Protein backbone atom coordinates (compact mmCIF):
# COMPACT_ATOMS: atom_id res chain seq x y z
CA UNK A 1 0.00 0.00 0.00
CA UNK A 2 2.88 2.34 0.80
CA UNK A 3 4.92 4.01 -1.86
CA UNK A 4 8.57 4.14 -0.92
CA UNK A 5 9.48 7.16 -3.00
CA UNK A 6 8.11 9.83 -0.64
CA UNK A 7 9.19 12.93 -2.55
CA UNK A 8 7.55 11.56 -5.67
CA UNK A 9 4.25 10.90 -3.86
CA UNK A 10 4.17 14.40 -2.46
CA UNK A 11 5.45 16.10 -5.61
CA UNK A 12 2.87 14.34 -7.76
CA UNK A 13 0.08 15.44 -5.40
CA UNK A 14 1.37 19.04 -5.28
CA UNK A 15 1.67 19.17 -9.04
CA UNK A 16 -1.88 17.89 -9.55
CA UNK A 17 -3.19 20.42 -7.03
CA UNK A 18 -1.25 23.30 -8.54
CA UNK A 19 -2.19 22.39 -12.10
CA UNK A 20 -5.83 22.02 -11.01
CA UNK A 21 -5.91 18.57 -12.56
CA UNK A 22 -6.60 17.01 -9.13
CA UNK A 23 -9.97 15.43 -8.38
CA UNK A 24 -11.36 17.00 -5.22
CA UNK A 25 -13.79 15.08 -3.00
CA UNK A 26 -15.94 17.00 -0.54
CA UNK A 27 -17.71 14.93 2.11
CA UNK A 28 -20.86 16.57 3.48
CA UNK A 29 -22.61 18.93 1.03
CA UNK A 30 -24.17 21.27 3.59
CA UNK A 31 -23.76 24.95 4.35
CA UNK A 32 -19.97 24.51 4.43
CA UNK A 33 -19.31 21.73 1.92
CA UNK A 34 -21.53 22.88 -0.95
CA UNK A 35 -20.09 26.39 -1.41
CA UNK A 36 -16.59 24.94 -1.12
CA UNK A 37 -17.35 22.29 -3.77
CA UNK A 38 -18.73 24.97 -6.09
CA UNK A 39 -15.67 27.14 -5.52
CA UNK A 40 -13.28 24.31 -6.50
CA UNK A 41 -15.43 23.64 -9.59
CA UNK A 42 -15.51 27.36 -10.45
CA UNK A 43 -11.71 27.56 -10.74
CA UNK A 44 -11.53 24.44 -12.91
CA UNK A 45 -11.14 21.40 -10.64
CA UNK A 46 -13.26 18.33 -11.09
CA UNK A 47 -15.23 17.82 -7.88
CA UNK A 48 -17.15 14.90 -6.42
CA UNK A 49 -19.40 15.74 -3.50
CA UNK A 50 -20.36 12.93 -1.15
CA UNK A 51 -23.45 13.11 1.04
CA UNK A 52 -25.46 10.44 2.84
CA UNK A 53 -28.66 12.41 2.18
CA UNK A 54 -29.91 11.04 -1.13
CA UNK A 55 -32.43 13.85 -1.57
CA UNK A 56 -29.61 16.43 -1.58
CA UNK A 57 -27.56 14.31 -3.99
CA UNK A 58 -30.52 14.05 -6.34
CA UNK A 59 -31.31 17.78 -6.21
CA UNK A 60 -27.67 18.77 -6.81
CA UNK A 61 -27.23 16.33 -9.69
CA UNK A 62 -30.38 17.86 -11.22
CA UNK A 63 -28.57 21.22 -11.08
CA UNK A 64 -30.61 22.60 -8.18
CA UNK A 65 -29.48 24.27 -4.98
CA UNK A 66 -31.36 23.37 -1.82
CA UNK A 67 -29.84 26.22 0.25
CA UNK A 68 -31.52 29.62 -0.08
CA UNK A 69 -28.43 31.83 -0.31
CA UNK A 70 -26.61 29.54 -2.79
CA UNK A 71 -27.88 30.32 -6.31
CA UNK A 72 -29.18 27.35 -8.30
CA UNK A 73 -27.37 28.80 -11.33
CA UNK A 74 -24.01 28.05 -9.72
CA UNK A 75 -24.91 24.37 -9.27
CA UNK A 76 -26.36 24.25 -12.76
CA UNK A 77 -23.26 25.76 -14.33
CA UNK A 78 -20.89 23.43 -12.42
CA UNK A 79 -23.03 20.46 -13.50
CA UNK A 80 -23.30 21.74 -17.09
CA UNK A 81 -19.55 22.03 -17.43
CA UNK A 82 -19.17 18.47 -16.11
CA UNK A 83 -17.01 19.68 -13.25
CA UNK A 84 -19.29 18.69 -10.38
CA UNK A 85 -21.21 15.60 -9.44
CA UNK A 86 -22.77 14.43 -6.21
CA UNK A 87 -22.75 10.86 -4.91
CA UNK A 88 -24.29 9.02 -1.97
CA UNK A 89 -21.75 6.17 -2.05
CA UNK A 90 -18.05 6.58 -1.28
CA UNK A 91 -16.72 4.44 -4.16
CA UNK A 92 -15.18 7.37 -6.04
CA UNK A 93 -13.22 8.49 -2.99
CA UNK A 94 -10.31 6.31 -4.16
CA UNK A 95 -10.01 8.42 -7.33
CA UNK A 96 -9.83 11.66 -5.34
CA UNK A 97 -6.51 13.41 -4.76
CA UNK A 98 -8.02 15.50 -1.98
CA UNK A 99 -10.75 14.58 0.51
CA UNK A 100 -12.27 17.43 2.52
CA UNK A 101 -14.55 16.51 5.41
CA UNK A 102 -17.38 18.97 6.19
CA UNK A 103 -19.83 16.89 8.26
CA UNK A 104 -21.79 18.09 11.32
CA UNK A 105 -20.33 18.23 14.82
CA UNK A 106 -23.38 18.66 17.11
CA UNK A 107 -23.82 18.11 20.84
CA UNK A 108 -25.49 14.96 22.15
CA UNK A 109 -28.42 14.80 24.57
CA UNK A 110 -26.02 15.48 27.47
CA UNK A 111 -24.59 18.54 25.66
CA UNK A 112 -21.34 16.73 25.06
CA UNK A 113 -19.51 16.55 21.69
CA UNK A 114 -21.06 14.10 19.25
CA UNK A 115 -18.19 13.15 16.94
CA UNK A 116 -20.05 10.23 15.41
CA UNK A 117 -20.45 11.99 12.03
CA UNK A 118 -16.71 12.64 11.83
CA UNK A 119 -15.65 9.17 12.95
CA UNK A 120 -18.34 7.55 10.78
CA UNK A 121 -17.10 9.48 7.76
CA UNK A 122 -13.45 8.63 8.38
CA UNK A 123 -14.34 4.95 8.73
CA UNK A 124 -16.30 5.04 5.48
CA UNK A 125 -13.33 6.67 3.73
CA UNK A 126 -10.57 4.39 5.06
CA UNK A 127 -11.26 1.48 2.65
CA UNK A 128 -10.88 3.95 -0.26
CA UNK A 129 -7.64 5.61 0.83
CA UNK A 130 -4.48 5.34 -1.25
CA UNK A 131 -1.02 6.86 -1.13
CA UNK A 132 -0.83 10.38 -2.57
CA UNK A 133 -4.04 11.79 -1.05
CA UNK A 134 -4.49 14.82 1.18
CA UNK A 135 -7.32 14.68 3.75
CA UNK A 136 -8.53 17.87 5.38
CA UNK A 137 -10.99 18.04 8.25
CA UNK A 138 -13.06 21.24 8.32
CA UNK A 139 -15.73 20.38 10.92
CA UNK A 140 -15.44 22.55 14.02
CA UNK A 141 -14.15 20.49 16.94
CA UNK A 142 -11.94 20.41 20.05
CA UNK A 143 -8.12 20.46 19.86
CA UNK A 144 -6.76 16.97 19.36
CA UNK A 145 -9.58 15.60 17.18
CA UNK A 146 -7.51 15.39 13.99
CA UNK A 147 -4.75 13.48 15.78
CA UNK A 148 -7.01 11.27 17.86
CA UNK A 149 -9.79 10.46 15.39
CA UNK A 150 -8.35 10.96 11.90
CA UNK A 151 -4.59 10.38 11.98
CA UNK A 152 -4.97 7.32 14.22
CA UNK A 153 -7.41 5.66 11.79
CA UNK A 154 -5.31 6.50 8.72
CA UNK A 155 -2.23 5.03 10.40
CA UNK A 156 -4.14 1.95 11.50
CA UNK A 157 -4.97 1.36 7.85
CA UNK A 158 -1.23 1.08 7.17
CA UNK A 159 -0.36 4.56 5.86
CA UNK A 160 2.35 6.81 7.19
CA UNK A 161 0.95 10.29 7.65
CA UNK A 162 3.23 12.88 6.08
CA UNK A 163 4.73 10.34 3.75
CA UNK A 164 1.91 8.40 2.08
CA UNK A 165 -1.17 10.35 3.07
CA UNK A 166 -1.22 14.01 4.12
CA UNK A 167 -3.56 15.22 6.88
CA UNK A 168 -4.56 18.72 7.88
CA UNK A 169 -7.22 20.64 9.76
CA UNK A 170 -8.59 23.77 8.15
CA UNK A 171 -11.63 25.28 9.85
CA UNK A 172 -14.40 26.84 7.84
CA UNK A 173 -15.32 30.49 8.25
CA UNK A 174 -18.70 31.39 6.83
CA UNK A 175 -21.02 34.32 7.12
CA UNK A 176 -24.09 33.32 5.13
CA UNK A 177 -25.87 36.32 3.67
CA UNK A 178 -22.79 38.60 3.92
CA UNK A 179 -22.41 40.21 0.48
CA UNK A 180 -18.77 41.21 1.08
CA UNK A 181 -17.32 37.87 2.10
CA UNK A 182 -17.72 34.51 0.38
CA UNK A 183 -15.66 31.32 0.41
CA UNK A 184 -12.99 32.74 -1.94
CA UNK A 185 -12.06 35.89 0.00
CA UNK A 186 -12.32 34.78 3.62
CA UNK A 187 -8.78 34.03 4.84
CA UNK A 188 -8.46 30.38 5.84
CA UNK A 189 -6.39 28.84 8.64
CA UNK A 190 -4.55 25.59 7.90
CA UNK A 191 -2.51 23.34 10.20
CA UNK A 192 -0.85 20.07 9.16
CA UNK A 193 0.13 16.95 11.08
CA UNK A 194 3.67 17.23 9.62
CA UNK A 195 5.38 19.95 7.55
CA UNK A 196 4.67 17.91 4.39
CA UNK A 197 0.98 17.72 5.38
CA UNK A 198 0.88 21.50 5.79
CA UNK A 199 2.52 21.93 2.41
CA UNK A 200 -0.20 19.78 0.82
CA UNK A 201 -2.95 21.71 2.68
CA UNK A 202 -1.57 25.05 1.51
CA UNK A 203 -1.39 23.80 -2.08
CA UNK A 204 -4.98 22.54 -1.88
CA UNK A 205 -6.55 25.71 -0.51
CA UNK A 206 -4.12 28.17 -2.11
CA UNK A 207 -5.82 27.68 -5.48
CA UNK A 208 -9.30 28.64 -4.28
CA UNK A 209 -8.88 30.96 -1.27
CA UNK A 210 -7.25 34.38 -1.60
CA UNK A 211 -5.27 34.03 1.63
CA UNK A 212 -4.36 30.81 3.45
CA UNK A 213 -2.83 31.31 6.90
CA UNK A 214 -0.51 28.49 7.98
CA UNK A 215 -0.30 27.56 11.67
CA UNK A 216 2.13 25.21 13.39
CA UNK A 217 -0.21 22.28 14.09
CA UNK A 218 -3.69 20.88 13.61
CA UNK A 219 -4.35 21.55 17.33
CA UNK A 220 -3.60 25.26 16.88
CA UNK A 221 -5.96 25.35 13.89
CA UNK A 222 -8.69 23.56 15.89
CA UNK A 223 -8.30 25.91 18.83
CA UNK A 224 -8.26 29.02 16.59
CA UNK A 225 -11.73 28.22 15.31
CA UNK A 226 -13.02 27.67 18.84
CA UNK A 227 -11.53 30.96 20.04
CA UNK A 228 -13.29 32.80 17.20
CA UNK A 229 -16.68 31.35 18.11
CA UNK A 230 -16.19 31.62 21.87
CA UNK A 231 -15.19 35.27 21.41
CA UNK A 232 -18.59 35.85 19.78
CA UNK A 233 -20.55 33.88 22.34
CA UNK A 234 -18.93 35.65 25.30
CA UNK A 235 -19.35 39.12 23.79
CA UNK A 236 -22.97 38.47 22.85
CA UNK A 237 -23.46 37.28 26.45
CA UNK A 238 -22.04 40.60 27.67
CA UNK A 239 -24.32 42.54 25.31
CA UNK A 240 -27.32 40.56 26.59
CA UNK A 241 -26.37 41.27 30.22
CA UNK A 242 -25.99 44.98 29.37
CA UNK A 243 -29.47 44.82 27.83
CA UNK A 244 -31.00 43.57 31.09
CA UNK A 245 -29.20 46.26 33.11
CA UNK A 246 -30.13 49.03 30.65
CA UNK A 247 -33.74 47.87 30.62
CA UNK A 248 -33.97 48.21 34.41
CA UNK A 249 -32.41 51.68 34.19
CA UNK A 250 -34.69 52.84 31.38
CA UNK A 251 -31.81 53.15 28.89
CA UNK A 252 -31.90 51.93 25.28
CA UNK A 253 -29.01 49.45 25.03
CA UNK A 254 -28.92 49.70 21.23
CA UNK A 255 -28.41 53.44 21.42
CA UNK A 256 -25.58 52.84 23.93
CA UNK A 257 -23.87 50.29 21.66
CA UNK A 258 -24.24 52.53 18.59
CA UNK A 259 -22.69 55.38 20.55
CA UNK A 260 -19.82 53.22 21.90
CA UNK A 261 -19.13 51.96 18.37
CA UNK A 262 -18.11 55.47 17.29
CA UNK A 263 -14.87 54.88 19.24
CA UNK A 264 -12.35 54.21 16.46
CA UNK A 265 -10.21 51.78 18.49
CA UNK A 266 -10.57 49.22 21.29
CA UNK A 267 -14.33 48.62 20.97
CA UNK A 268 -16.14 46.13 18.76
CA UNK A 269 -19.95 46.25 18.76
CA UNK A 270 -21.87 43.07 19.59
CA UNK A 271 -25.65 43.17 19.67
CA UNK A 272 -28.11 41.68 22.13
CA UNK A 273 -30.96 39.52 20.87
CA UNK A 274 -33.55 36.89 21.76
CA UNK A 275 -30.87 34.20 22.27
CA UNK A 276 -28.14 32.46 20.30
CA UNK A 277 -28.83 30.66 17.04
CA UNK A 278 -27.17 28.83 14.20
CA UNK A 279 -25.10 25.70 14.00
CA UNK A 280 -21.95 27.22 15.56
CA UNK A 281 -22.14 29.78 18.35
CA UNK A 282 -24.56 27.94 20.69
CA UNK A 283 -22.71 24.64 20.26
CA UNK A 284 -18.99 24.95 19.52
CA UNK A 285 -17.89 26.55 22.83
CA UNK A 286 -19.04 23.40 24.65
CA UNK A 287 -16.61 21.31 22.62
CA UNK A 288 -13.85 23.15 24.44
CA UNK A 289 -15.62 22.95 27.81
CA UNK A 290 -15.74 19.17 27.44
CA UNK A 291 -12.11 18.77 26.40
CA UNK A 292 -10.83 21.25 29.01
CA UNK A 293 -12.39 19.09 31.74
CA UNK A 294 -9.94 16.33 30.86
CA UNK A 295 -7.17 18.82 31.69
CA UNK A 296 -8.79 19.84 35.01
CA UNK A 297 -9.77 23.29 33.70
CA UNK A 298 -13.21 24.89 34.03
CA UNK A 299 -14.22 27.16 31.16
CA UNK A 300 -15.92 29.80 33.30
CA UNK A 301 -16.43 32.56 30.69
CA UNK A 302 -17.92 30.05 28.26
CA UNK A 303 -20.35 28.68 30.78
CA UNK A 304 -21.42 32.07 32.12
CA UNK A 305 -22.03 33.40 28.60
CA UNK A 306 -23.95 30.20 27.82
CA UNK A 307 -26.12 30.72 30.91
CA UNK A 308 -26.93 34.35 30.06
CA UNK A 309 -27.57 33.70 26.38
CA UNK A 310 -29.65 30.62 27.15
CA UNK A 311 -31.89 32.62 29.49
CA UNK A 312 -32.77 35.21 26.81
CA UNK A 313 -35.95 33.64 25.39
CA UNK A 314 -37.52 33.51 28.90
CA UNK A 315 -36.42 37.11 29.55
CA UNK A 316 -38.04 38.24 26.29
CA UNK A 317 -41.19 36.34 27.28
CA UNK A 318 -41.24 38.17 30.61
CA UNK A 319 -41.14 41.53 28.78
CA UNK A 320 -43.88 40.41 26.41
CA UNK A 321 -46.18 39.23 29.21
CA UNK A 322 -45.59 42.46 31.15
CA UNK A 323 -46.40 44.60 28.08
CA UNK A 324 -49.62 42.68 27.43
CA UNK A 325 -50.53 42.95 31.10
CA UNK A 326 -50.03 46.73 30.95
CA UNK A 327 -52.60 46.73 28.15
CA UNK A 328 -55.04 44.67 30.21
CA UNK A 329 -54.48 41.41 28.38
CA UNK A 330 -53.30 37.96 29.37
CA UNK A 331 -50.97 36.03 27.09
CA UNK A 332 -53.33 33.05 27.36
CA UNK A 333 -55.82 33.40 24.53
CA UNK A 334 -53.85 36.20 22.82
CA UNK A 335 -53.02 36.12 19.13
CA UNK A 336 -49.29 36.43 18.51
CA UNK A 337 -47.30 36.89 15.30
CA UNK A 338 -43.63 35.95 15.37
CA UNK A 339 -41.85 38.11 12.80
CA UNK A 340 -38.71 36.44 11.37
CA UNK A 341 -37.99 32.88 12.50
CA UNK A 342 -34.63 32.04 10.82
CA UNK A 343 -31.74 32.24 13.29
CA UNK A 344 -30.41 35.44 11.78
CA UNK A 345 -31.37 38.05 9.24
CA UNK A 346 -31.55 37.44 5.48
CA UNK A 347 -30.96 33.67 5.65
CA UNK A 348 -33.28 30.65 5.61
CA UNK A 349 -31.28 28.66 8.19
CA UNK A 350 -33.44 27.55 11.12
CA UNK A 351 -30.82 25.62 13.10
CA UNK A 352 -30.96 26.42 16.83
CA UNK A 353 -33.09 29.48 16.05
CA UNK A 354 -34.21 31.14 19.29
CA UNK A 355 -37.43 32.19 17.49
CA UNK A 356 -38.56 28.57 17.65
CA UNK A 357 -38.08 28.48 21.41
CA UNK A 358 -40.09 31.71 21.63
CA UNK A 359 -42.87 30.12 19.56
CA UNK A 360 -42.91 27.14 21.92
CA UNK A 361 -43.01 29.35 25.01
CA UNK A 362 -45.93 31.32 23.51
CA UNK A 363 -47.87 28.14 22.75
CA UNK A 364 -47.07 26.66 26.17
CA UNK A 365 -48.64 29.72 27.80
CA UNK A 366 -51.80 29.47 25.75
CA UNK A 367 -51.19 31.98 22.93
CA UNK A 368 -52.30 31.34 19.39
CA UNK A 369 -49.16 31.62 17.25
CA UNK A 370 -48.55 32.44 13.60
CA UNK A 371 -45.37 33.54 11.90
CA UNK A 372 -44.15 35.62 8.99
CA UNK A 373 -40.78 34.92 7.40
CA UNK A 374 -40.18 35.52 3.67
CA UNK A 375 -37.14 33.20 3.82
CA UNK A 376 -39.03 30.33 5.48
CA UNK A 377 -42.32 29.91 3.59
CA UNK A 378 -43.12 26.61 5.37
CA UNK A 379 -42.01 25.63 8.87
CA UNK A 380 -39.40 22.93 8.13
CA UNK A 381 -39.08 19.53 9.78
CA UNK A 382 -36.74 19.93 12.78
CA UNK A 383 -35.31 17.29 15.09
CA UNK A 384 -36.73 18.72 18.31
CA UNK A 385 -39.54 21.04 17.18
CA UNK A 386 -42.73 20.64 15.23
CA UNK A 387 -45.06 23.36 13.96
CA UNK A 388 -47.61 22.71 11.26
CA UNK A 389 -47.45 26.30 10.02
CA UNK A 390 -46.81 28.35 6.90
CA UNK A 391 -45.58 31.93 6.76
CA UNK A 392 -48.66 34.20 6.73
CA UNK A 393 -48.77 37.21 4.39
CA UNK A 394 -48.39 40.67 5.95
CA UNK A 395 -51.01 43.34 5.30
CA UNK A 396 -52.47 46.12 7.41
CA UNK A 397 -55.61 44.25 8.48
CA UNK A 398 -53.76 41.11 9.44
CA UNK A 399 -51.10 43.02 11.36
CA UNK A 400 -53.81 44.85 13.30
CA UNK A 401 -55.49 41.54 14.17
CA UNK A 402 -52.67 40.37 16.48
CA UNK A 403 -52.49 41.25 20.14
CA UNK A 404 -48.71 41.19 19.87
CA UNK A 405 -46.06 41.08 17.15
CA UNK A 406 -42.81 39.54 18.40
CA UNK A 407 -39.94 40.71 16.18
CA UNK A 408 -37.48 37.84 16.57
CA UNK A 409 -35.35 38.19 13.39
CA UNK A 410 -34.97 41.41 11.41
CA UNK A 411 -34.83 40.34 7.74
CA UNK A 412 -34.25 43.34 5.45
CA UNK A 413 -37.17 42.59 3.11
CA UNK A 414 -39.89 43.18 5.73
CA UNK A 415 -41.77 46.52 5.68
CA UNK A 416 -41.18 47.52 9.31
CA UNK A 417 -42.97 50.86 8.92
CA UNK A 418 -46.12 49.03 7.78
CA UNK A 419 -45.85 46.78 10.84
CA UNK A 420 -45.38 49.78 13.16
CA UNK A 421 -48.32 51.69 11.66
CA UNK A 422 -50.77 48.85 12.23
CA UNK A 423 -49.53 46.67 15.11
CA UNK A 424 -51.15 47.06 18.50
CA UNK A 425 -47.97 45.99 20.28
CA UNK A 426 -44.48 45.14 18.98
CA UNK A 427 -41.85 43.39 21.10
CA UNK A 428 -38.61 44.33 19.34
CA UNK A 429 -35.75 41.97 20.26
CA UNK A 430 -33.37 43.33 17.58
CA UNK A 431 -33.43 47.09 18.18
CA UNK A 432 -35.00 47.57 14.74
CA UNK A 433 -37.09 50.58 15.78
CA UNK A 434 -34.75 53.43 16.62
CA UNK A 435 -37.32 56.01 17.71
CA UNK A 436 -39.45 55.42 20.81
CA UNK A 437 -43.08 54.64 20.02
CA UNK A 438 -46.05 53.84 22.26
CA UNK A 439 -46.61 50.47 20.57
CA UNK A 440 -42.94 49.34 20.58
CA UNK A 441 -41.30 47.65 23.58
CA UNK A 442 -37.64 46.72 23.27
CA UNK A 443 -36.71 43.35 24.71
N1 LIG B 1 -22.79 26.59 8.78
C1 LIG B 1 -21.79 27.38 9.11
O1 LIG B 1 -21.92 28.60 8.97
C2 LIG B 1 -20.47 26.83 9.63
C3 LIG B 1 -19.40 27.71 9.72
C4 LIG B 1 -18.17 27.24 10.15
C5 LIG B 1 -18.03 25.90 10.52
N2 LIG B 1 -19.09 25.05 10.44
C6 LIG B 1 -18.84 23.66 10.82
O2 LIG B 1 -18.77 22.87 9.63
C7 LIG B 1 -19.31 21.58 9.86
C8 LIG B 1 -20.44 21.31 8.88
O3 LIG B 1 -21.47 22.26 9.10
P1 LIG B 1 -22.60 22.57 8.07
O4 LIG B 1 -23.24 23.83 8.52
O5 LIG B 1 -22.10 22.49 6.68
O6 LIG B 1 -23.57 21.32 8.35
P2 LIG B 1 -24.80 20.80 7.44
O7 LIG B 1 -25.67 20.02 8.34
O8 LIG B 1 -25.34 21.94 6.64
O9 LIG B 1 -24.09 19.83 6.40
C9 LIG B 1 -23.51 18.63 6.73
C10 LIG B 1 -23.81 17.64 5.59
O10 LIG B 1 -23.12 16.44 5.89
C11 LIG B 1 -23.94 15.36 5.51
N3 LIG B 1 -23.46 14.18 6.21
C12 LIG B 1 -23.67 13.81 7.49
N4 LIG B 1 -23.00 12.68 7.75
C13 LIG B 1 -22.35 12.32 6.62
C14 LIG B 1 -21.50 11.26 6.26
N5 LIG B 1 -21.17 10.30 7.13
N6 LIG B 1 -21.03 11.22 5.01
C15 LIG B 1 -21.35 12.19 4.11
N7 LIG B 1 -22.16 13.23 4.40
C16 LIG B 1 -22.64 13.29 5.63
C17 LIG B 1 -25.33 15.81 5.86
O11 LIG B 1 -26.31 15.11 5.14
C18 LIG B 1 -25.28 17.30 5.47
O12 LIG B 1 -25.69 17.50 4.14
C19 LIG B 1 -19.73 21.57 11.33
O13 LIG B 1 -18.68 21.07 12.10
C20 LIG B 1 -19.94 23.04 11.64
O14 LIG B 1 -19.75 23.30 13.01
C21 LIG B 1 -20.31 25.49 9.99
Short description:
The chain is α/β, with parallel strands linked by helices and 443 residues long. Helices cover 39% and strands 13% of the residues.
- Roughly how much helix do the residues carry, as a percent range? 25-40%
Based on CA atoms alone, the radius of gyration comes out at 24 Å
Low-confidence stretches: none
Overall body shape:
elongated
How many beta-strand runs? 13
**Count of alpha and pi helical runs:** 15
**Strand order within the widest sheet?**
3-2-1-4-5-6-7-8
**Mean pLDDT rating:** 95
Distance between the termini: 62 Å
Largest sheet: 8 strands, mixed
Describe the structure.
- This protein is α/β, with parallel strands linked by helices and 443 residues long.
- The protein starts with 5 loop residues before the first helix and ends with a strand.
- The chain is elongated.
- It is built from 15 helices and 13 strands.
- The model has no long low-confidence stretch (mean pLDDT 95).
- α1 packs parallel to α7, α5 (116-125) runs parallel beside α6 and α8 packs across α11.
- Bound molecules: nicotinamide-adenine-dinucleotide.
- The site of nicotinamide-adenine-dinucleotide has 27 residues, from α5.
